[in-house]
Specification:
- The radius of gyration is 38 Å and the shape is elongated.
- It has helices spanning 2-14, 61-73, 75-95, 139-205, 211-245, 275-278, 280-301, 346-412, 418-452; strands at 101-111, 121-132, 306-317, 329-338.
- The chain has a single domain (18-98, 137-304, 347-461), classed as Outer membrane efflux proteins (OEP) (Up-down Bundle), CATH 1.20.1600.10.
- By secondary structure, the chain is α+β, with helices and mostly antiparallel strands.
- The protein has a four-stranded antiparallel β-sheet with strand order 1-2-3-4, covered by helices on one side.
Length: 465
């Protein structure tokens, strides 16, 4: 009988199948080349961009010190990491359903009847039992497959959240240094306006300038001083944002003023098809498709019956001293099958819902890919256009600076009114602020390009099933 049960079990296992469709990644619209790629960086080695520590290409020691803290101390990422570990545990929990359940039961009793003259009796039993629902149709395997894909998607979400937080930190840092540069510019401007005020006061004392010229120069200086004070508001907010990103209270982080990053790094772009392997958000969408595909198999498996195998063996005896004798041994082997014959179409509806969920995940995947290409193209075009603007703006600053010097000389010579000096100085400050904004925009665009290319992440970084 035991041999027959084992033969039946092995036959069932060898004949087991997995219902539902096997997963194949659907195609997506991938261009042959980037529209903005010509004239950018072709065939440059990706080693320059860095692997995990992509921010090092900016060569800023403070940024290099802050960025690693994001993955360690950021509380949003800590929550994402806990979600990933939960998804891993769910995989192990569901995988446990593939194995038999083994149990052990024992009891001992002592009983009697009547008064104290009766002799008390004792009994005992010790039984081991095994029950197993073999995954004949692959329902559990499909569930494990889906949960594995979900865990990989969770790992990709963690990588994507980490990259987003790192890019946000880099952006806030650039903005903070831009405010530092603005403060430095306004301090230089205020010093120049102060010098202009002294010149105007000297001219007024000599009877060459009017009191209106003095008041105009003083007003211009006071306006620059007010802008200088206002620049500190934005700087403080960026410093607070950086503190939160690295997991610190704003009161615990103080960044001394520093220079704005001057060099825009050259970032290798590669061909568009590699973007599918380098973006963690694309990996999230792709793994979600695999999970949705597995759920179709789980739903289809509900149409098939479940087979339950069970075995029991042990001893039962009264009195207890004969418990382990051969005559008191007991055993049983059994099997049963259950199947649902009618359920009002709920199983078909479940399969239809699973297929629709898969179709939805395919659409989300393809849209994610298209959005990724758009973000890369946007960053490339921004860098190209802003580079051209930077050249024109620097030329404007150079000419405006010469115009200020000429206007001052002519005013001191008495051939120009002071309004000419004021106009030239305002134009210079405006051009200098515009040049600073262009440099800030170029740095932010380079960060956006690195983020759009996936940072240093690769799909091979996903945990294996």
């Amino acid at each position: 009988m035991i041999k027959r049960i084992w033969v039946l079990t092995l036959t069932v296992l060898l004949g087991a199948c997995t219902v539902g469709p096997n997963y194949h990644r659907p195609g997506a619209i991938v261009p042959v080349a980037y529209k903005e790629a010509p004239g950018w960086t072709r065939a440059a080695p990706a080693d320059n961009r860095g692997k995990g520590s992509w921010w090092r290409i900016y060569r800023d020691p403070v940024l290099n010190r802050l960025e690693p803290l994001v993955a360690v101390s950021n509380q949003t990422l800590a929550a994402d990491y806990a979600a990933y570990k939960q998804a891993e545990a769910i995989v192990r929990e569901v995988r446990g359903g593939l194995f038999p359940v083994v149990g052990l039961t024992g009891d001992a009793k002592r009983f009697g009847q009547g008064g104290g003259s009766s002799h008390p009796q004792s009994s005992a039993s010790l039984e081991g039992n095994v029950s197993w629902v073999p995954d004949i149709w692959g329902k559990i395997r499909r569930q494990v497959e889906g949960d594995q894909a979900a865990a990989q998607a969770s790992a990709a979400e963690l990588a994507n959240a980490t990259l987003s937080a790192q890019a946000a930190l880099a952006g806030d840092y650039v903005n903070l240094r831009a405010q530092d540069a603005t403060v430095d510019l306004l301090q230089q401007t205020a010093a120049a306006y102060r010098q202009s005020l002294r010149i105007t006061e000297n001219q007024a004392d000599a009877g060459v300038a009017t009191p209106l010229d003095v008041i105009t120069a003083r007003t211009q200086l006071e306006g620059a001083q007010a802008q200088l004070i206002n620049a500190g508001v934005a700087r403080a907010q960026y410093e607070h944002a950086i503190a939160v990103l690295v997991g610190k209270p704003p009161a615990d982080l103080n960044l001394t003023p520093g220079k704005l990053i001057a060099r825009i790094p050259r970032i290798p772009v590669g061909v568009p098809s590699t973007l599918l392997q380098r973006r963690p958000d694309i990996a999230v969408a792709e793994r979600s498709m695999a999970q949705a595909n597995a759920q179709i198999g789980v739903a289809v498996g509900a149409f098939y019956p479940d087979l339950n195998l069970s075995a029991l063996g042990g001893y039962s005896a009264s009195p207890i001293h004969d418990l382990f004798s051969a005559s008191n041994a007991l055993w049983s082997l059994g099997t049963d099958a259950t199947a649902t014959l009618f359920e009002g179409g709920s199983r078909r509806a479940a399969v239809s819902a699973a297929r629709s969920g898969y179709a939805q995940s395919v659409a989300v995947y393809r849209q994610t890919v298209l959005t990724a290409f758009q973000q890369v193209e946007d960053a490339l075009s921004n860098l190209r256009i802003l580079a051209q603007q930077a050249k024109a703006q620097q030329a404007a600053v150079k000419d405006a600076r010469q115009a200020v010097q000429i206007a001052l000389n002519e005013y001191q010579a008495g051939t120009q009114a002071y309004t000419t000096v004021v106009t030239a100085q305002v134009t210079l400050l405006t051009d200098q602020q515009a040049a600073l904004a262009v440099q800030q925009g170029r740095l932010l665009a380079s960060i956006a390009l690195i983020q759009g290319l996936g940072g240093g992440w690769q799909r091979a970084d996903l945990p294996t099933p």
